[in-house]
Write a structure and sequence with these properties.
Helix content is about 40%, strand content about 15%. The longest helix is centred in the middle third of the chain and has 29 residues. The protein has a 7-stranded parallel beta sheet with strand order 3-2-1-4-5-6-7, with helices on both faces. It is built from 7 helices and 7 strands, in the order βαββαβαβαβαααβ. The chain has a single domain, classed as NAD(P)-binding Rossmann-like Domain (Rossmann fold), CATH 3.40.50.720. With about 240 residues, the chain is of the alpha/beta class. Strand 5, helix 4 and strand 6 form a beta-alpha-beta unit. The protein starts with a strand and ends in a 10-residue tail after the last strand.
């Protein structure tokens, strides 16, 4: 039984990968649930289980294997999908798929690790939302689910505070992940316009988000719960003149 393990969903790439490596540097065992395979020999590959979060039964089976072998006291609900679409263009199939991955899977993960956290009277849950909860076009399904994640956080924080368990949310802004840069080349007018609108004058990095997540996961962050922290270079406040 591995104690003090960190379960991170979607840790094979991008923000999840940066979180995994940051927590591994701090000495934690990393458990990675992802549909994508990790790079061999990396912290996120040590305890990797492939799972498609759309499949609730497969998700439950993977979580059962994890909780039988590891005492998980830290959870990062990072996995998520974005299927762009406005109100008229959002199909029910796309909406339901987004809910399954972004919301239902996060609920399943939290429920699975909660018994160990209660036994230890210690737990840290960090839910990854997005700046889009403040509003963004073409994100009907994505924004709804990320707002739902923030709702999970506030509710669970109230329910679990007396158990020694904190629950917080990170709302990343424009982050230069492989997914973002493949759709928005660095020298494209669109990317330049995005950067011009960020008060700090640059894109965020996955490591920027990992740094904030590590704060919430720290033993010493016991008096911080129910919060939503935007890691967005100030974009949640406004755009520079």
């Amino acid at each position: 039984m591995t104690a003090d393990a960190v379960l991170i969903t979607g840790a094979s790439r991008g923000i999840g990968q940066a979180i995994a490596r940051r927590m591994a540097e701090a000495g934690h065992a990393i458990i990675n649930l992802d549909i994508l395979p990790p790079e061999p020999g990396t912290p996120e590959a040590a305890n990797y289980l492939r799972v498609d979060f759309v499949d609730r039964d497969a998700t439950a089976a993977a979580l059962a294997r994890i909780t039988a072998a590891h005492e998980v006291t830290r959870l990062v609900n990072n996995a998520g999908i974005a299927l762009p679409g406005d109100l008229e263009g959002t199909t029910l199939a796309d909406f339901e798929r987004t809910v399954q991955v972004n919301l239902r899977a996060a609920l399943q993960c939290a429920e699975a690790v909660l018994p160990a956290m209660k036994r230890r009277r210690f737990g840290r849950i960090v839910n990854i939302a997005s700046r889009v909860v403040l509003g963004k076009t073409l994100r009907t399904a994505y924004a709804a689910t990320k707002a739902g994640i923030a709702g999970f956080t506030r509710t669970w924080a109230l329910e679990l505070g007396r158990e020694g368990i904190t629950v917080n949310t990170i709302g990343p802004g424009p982050i230069a992940t492989d997914m973002f840069t493949s759709a928005n080349p660095a020298d494209s007018p669109r990317t330049k316009a995005i950067i011009e609108g960020i008060p700090v004058g640059r894109m965020g990095t996955p490591e920027d988000v990992a740094h904030a997540v590590a704060f919430f996961l720290d033993d010493r962050s016991s008096f911080v719960t129910g919060q939503l922290l935007y890691v967005c270079g100030g974009l949640s406040v406004g755009r520079p003149d």
